[in-house]
Design goal:
Length: about 425
């Protein structure tokens, strides 16, 4: 009996697996358009995936999966206009390297660099620093391959509605083939990590956010300990001790931490001493390096994550309620809560749409149940107008998401017009979009 061997795909966190009927790796824009046209002609669905660093079923498909790993690289750099155009499949670390070789850097980034640039922007991936929007807000134009096989250029001036809809679109409007990003001359950052008290950090939060280029903090549950992280631009020479970096990033944050997670995932009641050991062991650090080398950190311990965006003015109150809730309910958690601050934007489906925002991120080891922890915290954050990070876990569906996004209807009108047969949808996206 003839059978078709199915491909296997899984995400970084290994909580999502799927068997696409086929995985395509187009090497040119035209080859990608041909795949889309073929799918359209036979009424089939396709799903584009990035580098699988989302924690939800966003990439999951039984149909054709398209990977743009062969569509990588810098197409052009206009240093005068501070704009770089890259193929959509370019991984952020590749893009960082190519830009840096030409004396430029991306304006602001999150804490890993292994995503594809289109995967990162499609979910509104962000770093921290209230002067900066998420990475999608750094896009000044992009080209979209649509269900009809057209290539549409979008920017503030060309197809402006599609530009507002398409910078964060979860792969549902079509496939971004290339994009132009705002870049800046290469810069160095002085990074300082310091242990402090949560109460003091909350008291001084406005000052920390205002006086630093990038400020974020990690709070360690069941303690009053935080690790504050400040980064500021500097012209001082690089000072980044390789040995210390290895000890901090590989031994403390991954090796030793991974060992503790093995205990935590096997022994139910170990979370309390573990949380305290991890908080107590938070390191202080000071280094100076090129920005892309400061932003990116290795993440070898696999976890599940939920991250929520709320209006920045609600942050302190929400944070205090969350601290009390965790201490009252005694969830099985020993990963720190990460708090970041991001400028508002005008991208219709961006969690930061129309508001300066605080992001709060919650993690559990990938082997540990995440509920009721995630669900209870989500309920609190929804009271503050919370919007989930699209690439991270949440339990929201169209009924409550629609009211959280003022431009929800306009986005879906465009989506239905561009892709009337739902070629780019998968079951998960259908569910959260109520399509
Ligand atoms: C360890 C870890 C650390 C992280 N740190 C951060 C962080 O600091 N800040 C933050 O905000 N997020 C962070 N994330 C989340 C991550 O940035 C997002 O989930 C991001 O979307 C992953 O990019 P990816 O390339 O892996 O895309 P995938 O997860 O594979 O795909 C994400 C979405 O992009 C769509 N997509 C991919 N390519 C295209 C294309 N060419 N055209 C249209 N749509 C496309 C897919 O269809 C899918 O809907 C982290 C995740 C992990 C696992």
């Amino acid at each position: 009996m003839a059978y078709q061997k199915l491909a296997f795909w899984q995400n970084w966190a290994r909580n999502v697996q799927c068997s696409p009927s086929k995985i395509e790796h187009p090497e040119t824009e035209q080859a990608l358009v041909d795949i889309i046209k073929d799918a359209g002609a036979s009424n089939k669905r396709v799903r584009v995936a990035g580098n699988g660093h989302s924690f939800t079923e966003l990439d999951s498909t039984k149909d054709t999966m398209i990977l743009l790993d062969q569509l990588q690289g810098l197409i052009s750099l206009d240093a005068h206009k501070s704009q770089a155009t890259a193929w959509a499949g370019t991984s952020i670390n590749n893009l960082n390297r190519l830009l840096f070789e030409k004396g430029c850097n991306i304006v602001n980034l999150g804490d890993i660099d292994v995503q594809s640039i289109a995967g990162a922007t499609a979910t509104g991936t962000h770093g921290t620093g209230l002067r900066f929007g998420n990475v999608s807000s750094q896009m000044s134009s992009f080209t979209l391959a649509t269900a009809s096989g057209e290539l549409i250029d979008c920017s503030k001036d060309k197809n402006p509605e599609l530009f507002n809809a398409g910078r964060v679109s979860l792969g549902s409007l079509g496939i971004v083939t290339k994009m132009t990003l705002d870049v800046v001359p290469a810069y160095k950052l002085e990074y300082v990590a310091k242990k402090a008290k949560l109460s003091e950090t909350l008291d001084r939060l406005d000052e920390y956010i205002a006086n630093n280029r990038n400020f974020e903090f990690y709070w360690f549950p069941y303690t009053n300990i935080v690790q504050n992280k400040f980064s500021n631009e500097t012209d001082a020479p690089v000072k980044d001790n390789q040995m210390m970096r290895y000890i901090n990033q590989h031994i403390m944050e991954n090796g030793f931490f991974g060992l503790l997670c093995n205990i935590g995932s096997n022994i139910n009641n170990s979370y309390l001493p573990l949380a305290k050991i991890i908080g107590f062991g938070a390191t202080s650090e000071r280094k100076i390096n090129h920005s892309h080398l400061v932003f990116a950190t290795p993440r070898n311990v696999r976890f599940k994550e939920m991250e929520y965006n709320i209006p920045i003015e609600n942050f302190k109150e929400a944070m205090q309620r969350i601290v009390s809730k965790i201490h009252k309910e005694h969830y099985r958690v020993y990963f720190p809560v990460e708090c970041r601050f991001v400028k508002g934007d005008d991208i219709w489906m961006s969690p930061s749409y129309g508001r300066d925002s605080a992001y709060l991120a919650f993690h559990v080891d990938s082997r540990t149940p995440h509920n009721p922890y995630f669900k209870d915290i989500e309920n609190i954050l929804m009271e503050y107008g919370g919007r989930p990070h699209w690439g991270k876990m949440h339990s929201r569906k169209a009924d409550t998401l629609a009211t959280a996004y003022p431009m929800w209807e306009q986005f879906h009108e465009i989506r239905k017009k561009l892709d009337p047969n739902g070629m780019f949808m998968n079951d998960y996206v259908k569910e959260i979009f109520g399509a």
